[in-house]
Design brief:
Blueprint (H helix, E strand, L loop, with lengths): L12 H11 L4 H8 L3 H10 L5 H10 L8 H10 L5 H13 L3 H11 L6 H13 L3 H8 L3 H18 L3 H12 L3 H7 L5 H13 L5 H22 L5 E15 L2 E17 L4 E3 L2
Antiparallel strand pairs: 1-2, 2-3
Helix pairs in contact: 5-7, 6-7, 7-9, 8-9, 9-11, 10-11, 10-12, 10-14, 11-13
Length: 282
């Protein structure tokens, strides 16, 4: 059992391909022509165990008459977990897994590389792209454990909702997609601890007289400030594991309770090094 995949008695991708060629009496040149993968690429894979790229694996899978993503778990284990953590190989696999809704496969990759701080900004950028594509569940796996970036994303939903006067249901769905059951995110960004509670409060504001340019400008300023801090932190995760800064909020109360929105993020005033010690910003 490896990271949730029981691959102990599962043949390798190459073994399955060899078996396919033998059973169907197909030569490698014939398969290369049929699949659209160059024969030299296949030769290198067989002779030197130099893996194909994921888009080439997709062509091979299709040519074998198998479902999309059929070999992904084995590809991840053999050519990422056990072989190389090269981002040029990892990134296309993450995006293809997101397209096919293979969330367990994404978790496997992220769990393997997340302790390497060099990957933090790359994972953040990939998460932003996935979120923009509407692949929220996959994006959340890449944001996982990153409270600051999740808080920024929740604030972005708030700003977008006010700009477009979105419905309460739209707000609730988008906030739920970001944080799921992670109520701590809402405790950081909002006084209300659930997506439904924030949606109720924000929905009332949008429908009422408080949905003014002043309110929009205030929460946009809060978003810009926290975004700047998140961007700085994402490129400095090789030095620090935590940053602290003060934030100003505005609170509104209605029948659903009190909802709070960030309106200003102060300067970063101290950072925690990887060894646990703190330094103060000059």
């Amino acid at each position: 059992m490896k990271g949730g995949y029981d691959l102990g008695h599962t043949p390798t991708i190459l073994a399955e391909l060899e078996d396919y060629l033998q059973r169907n009496d197909v030569t490698l040149p014939q398969f290369a022509e049929h699949s659209g993968v160059h024969q030299r690429t296949l030769n290198n894979w067989f002779a030197k165990h130099r893996p194909v790229a994921v888009h080439q694996l997709d062509r091979i899978t299709l040519a074998m008459g198998l479902p999309e993503g059929y070999f992904y778990e084995r590809y991840i284990e053999h050519y990422i977990i056990e072989s190389s953590s090269d981002w040029r190989r990892i990134e296309p696999v993450l995006f293809r897994c997101a397209e096919l809704d293979k969330l367990a496969a994404i978790q496997r990759i992220v769990g393997h590389i997340m302790d390497n701080l060099l990957y933090s900004p790359k994972l953040f950028d990939a998460a932003e792209q996935l979120f923009a594509q509407g692949r929220h569940a996959a994006a959340l796996l890449l944001y996982e454990g990153d409270e600051l970036n999740l808080m920024v994303r929740a604030q972005q939903v708030t700003v977008d909702a006010v700009k477009r006067k979105e419905s309460e249901n739209w707000i609730r769905k988008n906030l739920s997609d970001i944080a799921g059951e992670l109520s701590t995110i809402f405790a950081l960004a909002f006084a209300t601890r659930t997506a439904a509670g924030v949606a109720l409060g924000l929905g009332a504001l949008i429908a009422g007289s408080l949905a003014t340019n002043y309110f929009l400008n205030s929460i946009t300023a809060g978003l810009n400030g926290t975004s700047r801090h998140a961007s700085w932190f994402n490129v400095n995760t090789n030095k620090y594991k935590r940053i602290e800064f003060e934030a100003a909020f505005v609170e509104y109360s209605n029948a659903g309770g009190t909802t709070r929105y960030i309106t200003q993020a102060g300067s970063i005033y101290r950072m925690q090094r990887l060894d646990g010690t703190w330094i103060y910003a000059s």
